[in-house]
What we know:
This protein has helices at 3-24, 36-44, 78-86, 101-127, 159-173, 175-181, 199-210, 219-222, 229-243, 255-258, 270-285, 325-336, 347-352, 359-375, 383-395, 406-425, 460-481, 489-504, 538-565, 567-580, 585-594; strands at residues 32-33, 48-54, 58-63, 68-72, 90-94, 141-142, 188-192, 214-218, 247-252, 292-298, 316-319, 432-436, 446-449, 582-584.
Amino acid sequence: MKSENVLIIFSILVLAVLLMNIFNGMETPDAKALKYSDFMHQIRTGNVVTATIVGNTMIEGKFLDGKAYRTNIPPNNPNLVNSLRKHEVQITFVPDAGMPWYISLLIHWGPFIFIFVIWLLLMKRMQGAGRLFSIGKSRAQRADPAQRKITFEDVAGVDECKDELVEIIEFLKDPTKFRKLGGRIPKGVLMSGPPGTGKTLLAKAVAGEAEVPFYSISGSDFVEMFVGVGASRVRDLFEEGRKNSPCILFIDEIDAVGRSRGTGLGSGNDEREQTLNQLLVEMDGFDAMEGIIVVAATNRPDVLDPALLRPGRFDRQIYVSLPDIKGREAILGIHSRKVVQEEGIDFSIIAKGTPGFSGADLKNLVNEAALWAARQNKSALGLKDFEDARDRILMGPERHSMVMSEKEKLSTAYHEAGHALVAILTSKSDPVHKVTIVPRGRALGVTSFLPENDNRAYDTDYLSSRVTIAMGGRAAEEIIFDEITTGASNDIQQATTTVRSMICRYGMNESIGPIALDTDNQQHVFGRDFLKDREYGEKTASQVDHEMRKLLTMHYQKAKKLLQDHIDVLHATAKMLMEEETVDGQQISDLLAQES
Ligand code: ADP
Ligand code: ZN
C-alpha cells in the first residue's frame, strides 16, 4: 500500500475513535447515569450493593435489583466513603478510569495527532501526490540498470550534438585518464531546443555509451511550496552523484528553477531563488575531475539566469534542433524497427511530408500507424499506413503548432532564399553557412553565417550589408507573392536597430554628423528607446527619422534589385530548400556560378 493511503486510513481511525470517545463518554452501555444527589439518596435507602470508585471522579456499581448505574462524584470527599461503608456497600477502588492505554493515549495526544495529520494532508495537497515522506529528498530517479541500455544507436538526426558529446563520454569512461592529462572538461552541459527533440534521450544515451549511472530529476520537482525544500533536494542530488561517480545528473526543465532572479512576475519567489543559489553553490563546489557531469535541458534558454551559464557551470551549450529531412528519415527508421512492416518502405517520402515534426512527433506517428493497422487486422505496416497516420496527426485536433502548411513552407523557402542570396551577392557580408526552413524556436527558418572574425570593429560597409540582408527576406516575398507576411517583422526590427545605431551612436551618417545622440547607458530595446528622454531637440529627432527612413528604403530597394537580377537563382534556391530543407551556402554559390 502506498504511504499516503496508510496515512489516510490512519487519520480516519483516529477521528473515529475520538468521536466515539466524545459521544459515548466512558459509559458502560446500559448503566444508568445518576445525579449525585439521587445517588446519595439511593445509598441512604440502602439500595446500592456495589460501588467501584474509578479514579477520583466517578462511581460505577449495581443496585439491589441488579441494574447498573454510574455517577460523577466531587473530588476529595472522604464523607462519601464513610457513608458507603455505613450502608455496607461493597467498595472497590480502580486507580484511573478503566480505559485501555490506547484510549487514554488518544485522549491526551489525539488533538495533536489530529492536527499533525491535517497538516500533512494539506501539505500533500499542495505538493501533488506521492511525495509525503520524501520532503527534502532529491527524488532523483536512477535509471533502471535492468532496462535495455540506451545508446547513440537510438538517437538520430542530431549528429552535431553527438559529436560534441563524444568527449564527455570519453571522460566519463575513464576520468583518471583525463585527470592525468589535465584536460579541461565541462562540469555542466546545457541542452536547449524545442520539446520532443530528444534532449533527455541524448543525455541517457551519453550515460549508456559511457556505462555510468543516470540520475534524472525535473526542475519543477525542485520548486515546492516550502522554502528550503528545493535547496535540500539539490544538495541530496549532488550527494547522490558524488557517491556514485562517475555519473550523469540530468535536470529536466531547468528553467523552472533557473529563471533570471528577480524577474518573475509577481515575484518574490524566495524558494526558487534559494534553490537556484544552492544549485550554483553545488556546481561550483565539485571538482570537474570528480567525474560528475550535470546535464540540463530547457526549451527556454532565453529566460535562464546568466549566472548559470558562467564558466565552471553550464558552460557547454548544445542546441538540439528539430530534425531536418534526413534526420526525420533516420528517426522514422529507428522507431519503426519495433513494428512489423512491409519490405523496403521508403521513409524519405514520409520524412518529406513532415516538416516541423520533432523526434517525439515521429515516434507518435509510427505508433499511430501501428495502432491503426492493428485495428484493421493488417499483418504488416505499409507506406500508406504511415501516410495516413501523418494526415491524421496533421489534420486531427492535435495539430502541432510548429508544423508548417505547404504554403507557409513555400513562403519561408523564398524568404530564407532571399536572405541567403542577398548575403552572397553582397561582398562585405559574412559567408553564408547554411540556410534552413526547419523551424527553430519561433523562427520559421534560419539563415546562418560563418563570421570570419568575432570581435572586429564593424565598418560602415559591413553594417550596411547586414541591413540589406535583413531586407532580403521580405523583398523576396514581395517579388514572388506580391504580399508581405508577418514573418519578416523580426528582420525589419533588426534592420531598424542597426540603422539607428549607425546614425545615432557611431556617427556614420553624413548629414547628422559624427555625434553620439544615443549614449550607451540608454537601453537599446527596440521601441523603447524612442520613448526615452532624448538628449537632443525636436529638429534633430525629425532629421534622424528622415535619415533612417531614407536608408531603410534604400536598402530595401537594393535587396529587391539584387534578387530581381538573379531571379532564376532565387527560384532554384527556394526549390532546393523545398526539397532538402537545408542548403549550404556553397550550393547557392554554385547555382550563381552556373547562371547564364
Ligand atoms: P526532450 O527531452 O527534448 O523533450 P525526449 O528525449 O523526451 O525529448 O524525447 C521523447 C521521445 O521521442 C524519446 O524518448 C524518443 O523515443 C523520441 N525521440 C525524440 N528525439 C529523437 C531522436 N532524435 N531520435 C530518436 N528518437 C527520438
Ligand atoms: Zn527573415
